Amino acid sequence: MSLKRTLLEASRIVLGLVFVISGLLKAVDPMGGAIKVGEYFGSILGSKFLWISHTFLPLSVLLCMVEFLLGAFLLMGIYRRIASRMTFVMMVFMTIVTIYISITDSVGDCGCFGDLIKLTNVQSLIKNIILLPMSYFVMRYARQMSHLYTRRERWVPAALAFIGISQFTYCNQRYLPYRDFRPYQIGFDLNKKIQEADSTYQAELLEGTRFIYRKGDRVESFTVHNLPDTTWTYERQEQSSELKNRKLTYSFEMQNSEGEAMEHQILNDQTGVLLLFSLNWNDANQDNIDEINELYRYAQEYGYKFYGVSASTPEEESEWRYQTGADYPILFMDATTIKTIIRANPGLIVMKSGVVIDKISSEMLPSIDKIPSYIHSRMKLGQGTVPSPMRLLLLGLWASILLLGLLRLLARRINARGYIIGRKNRVEKEL
Length: 431
Known about the structure:
Layout (H helix, E strand, L loop, with lengths): L2 H26 L1 H16 L10 H21 L3 H25 L16 H20 L14 H21 L14 H19 L1 E6 L2 E5 L10 E6 L2 H5 L8 E2 L7 H5 L5 E6 L10 H13 L3 E6 L3 H11 L5 E4 L1 H7 L5 E6 L2 E7 L9 H9 L13 H38 L1
Parallel strand pairs: 5-6, 6-7
Antiparallel strand pairs: 1-2, 1-3, 4-7, 5-8, 8-9
């Protein structure tokens, strides 16, 4: 195989893997992708983008599906010209965006690989600068790329890849992510995590603080480890804005209607607490109101705490109570924290002694007759909800077909190589 062909195949495989992995990790959490899309629009357009905020989720779904399909087509060597052209166009667009984001530093991380792999804006730019010439090389010599399936066969793996990523994305959007890579996962001890994060932050804050002292006309800064003697006069202390403004990884601050902090009471409750989260009551799904109200009634009867938690205004809260008959106490929490904790609106979290036992969307709430067994299994047995592996069934079949195509291609090449060697040996014997 020539050097050009080797580089072409390597570029095709690298691009295919990057796009498949990126698309899959975005598809795990399409709501998180929608939040990231909003950050990009906000960075580029400012407040002017608000009128199109309803398109962020469809754009997130479209992006992860297109990325996955382009990567899948490149790996299988099917629809080579259209796939390579679209890949090049996407790489040009993403490189331009990351250049702007790297200069302005207006988005915390690129979101290229969801919440599992965090890349800084500079790292994302370097990645795109490496992949961009690869995508051009692949586009220019698309016809020379290897293909695992013929024109008559290619529709089968293409359809399976499309249906598989569509089903996977839809289920993750409706029933919460298949894998939760953010803080507040099931099984996490929030008491422990919050204390650890706070201790780490306080230590970093102390180490990063500079104490300004004066002695006559001399003004110098000192660290906590080399403070001057009493002949110096203390004036002030300084910290970097990045350190002062840094948010803790885990935050669980919430208040009741009287402004009283409730997080310590909830995190230290050893009986069990059910928290119904909603970013905004006006947008919350009301299809399972009967199940929610029955959960509250059952919790009251058996001594479990039940709270609604939202970033809504009092007016929005009153409207929710009027429309749903909600009688449970509702707490206020910062919108950013709610979006980090749970993607559903509304979504339920079951906690005990500060440990997240379960996390489900309203679509996954048990029917009224199964609520007692649900509460018992969570509070007494500590069992959490496990996502169905059926979400990955079609993608698993596509991966099997990809592997089958690779083995078939390898077998063809071995057979061809054997034929050429055998023919060469026969010719040499005849001579």
